[in-house]
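Input structure tokens:
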């Protein structure tokens, strides 16, 4: 099933930074939230759907698994989505290899150039990356605009190598800032120095989150669940016309790029340990990574309610990052990948989801 979630009021999805009296007084929201947030809401709602006694830990484990075992759940998303002309349209993070062309007002992809061909250019990139991403020669540089998104049809054009038009985030949602004070549990009065600032997300009318859920049956066509910080409410409805997820080309093109639609984790930081991509590809050929467009890193952690302690924070490659590969021979995405995801952590719940393009 595929769900469309809409906020009843506002949502709060804190990023991975600490938020307490010593470290910071301002909580920043991210949108869309990490899959870890939504899987928790989905699994909690599934317990209600199945009528499980929440005081029976064995029954809970049989139904939805444990903290580290997601059982039968397979999830994609969340992605920002909007009702447009009676249908749901998904929006994706702006690819990291796009730059704004001041001449056309559209975004164009950087082009990989062999470093050896760029005479006099010295770089600090790893030596096994043979190319740099370089602006097209006729591009007129323009000031980059923050918080840009691609409609799915624009993402398809980008993957086909065409210029694209982006949608500003403020057309999809608004960030609201609220100030609060800490109160003493004993006296109910203000605690000195305990003022804080929280950022909420208010999606615009018709804007919500798209989520694909497999492995869970028996859900009603529509309902409500708690989502994110402060257990804010969300309405959900099952899509009568599911959007699905596009199949990847088989075999992969000789020159292809991998766009990450959701964050991904690699044990070697921005790539698998030792730079070995063998576990993600199959066939009688080989792939070689030649260039990367990264959006820095994100810290993904959380809080283990059952254990009463914070979860370890790990550095993930952000959604929107793009990896350029060259293939020799017939190469496929490995059929053994869980959820067809390129990640070393939590593929079951939507991390490491990719779209493939040519370059």
């Amino acid at each position: 099933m595929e769900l469309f979630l809409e906020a009843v009021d506002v949502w709060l999805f804190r990023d991975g930074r600490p938020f307490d009296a010593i470290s910071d007084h301002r909580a920043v929201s991210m949108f869309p939230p990490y899959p870890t947030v939504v899987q928790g809401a989905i699994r909690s709602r599934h317990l209600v759907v199945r009528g499980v006694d929440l005081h029976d830990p064995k029954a809970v484990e049989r139904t939805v698994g444990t903290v580290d075992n997601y059982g039968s759940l397979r999830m994609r998303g969340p992605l920002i989505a909007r009702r447009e002309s009676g249908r749901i349209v998904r929006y994706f993070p702006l690819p990291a290899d796009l730059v704004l062309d001041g001449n056309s007002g559209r975004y164009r992809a950087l082009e990989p150039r062999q470093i050896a061909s760029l005479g006099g250019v010295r770089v600090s990139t790893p030596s096994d990356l043979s190319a740099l991403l370089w602006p097209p020669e006729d591009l007129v540089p323009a000031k980059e605009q923050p918080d840009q998104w691609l409609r799915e049809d624009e993402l398809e054009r980008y993957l086909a190598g065409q210029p694209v038009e982006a949608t500003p985030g403020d057309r999809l949602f608004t960030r609201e800032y609220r100030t609060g004070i800490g109160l003493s549990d004993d006296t109910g009065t203000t605690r000195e120095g305990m003022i804080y600032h929280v950022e909420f997300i208010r999606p615009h009318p018709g804007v919500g989150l798209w989520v694909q859920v497999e492995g869970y049956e028996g859900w009603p066509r529509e309902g409500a669940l708690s989502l994110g910080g402060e257990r804010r409410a969300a309405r959900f409805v099952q899509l009568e016309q599911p959007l699905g997820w596009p199949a990847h080309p088989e075999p992969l093109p000789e020159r292809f790029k991998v766009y990450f639609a959701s964050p991904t984790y690699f044990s070697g930081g921005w790539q698998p340990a030792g730079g070995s991509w063998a576990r993600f590809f199959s066939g009688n050929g080989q792939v070689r990574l030649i260039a990367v467009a990264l959006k820095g890193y994100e810290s993904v952690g959380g809080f283990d309610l059952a254990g009463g302690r914070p979860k370890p924070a790990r550095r993930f490659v952000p959604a929107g990052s793009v990896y350029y590969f060259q293939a020799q021979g017939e190469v496929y995405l490995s059929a053994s990948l869980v959820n067809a995801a390129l990640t070393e952590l939590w593929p079951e719940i939507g991390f490491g989801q990719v779209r493939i393009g040519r370059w």
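The two ends are 33 Å apart (CA to CA). Residues 35-49 form the longest helix (15 residues).
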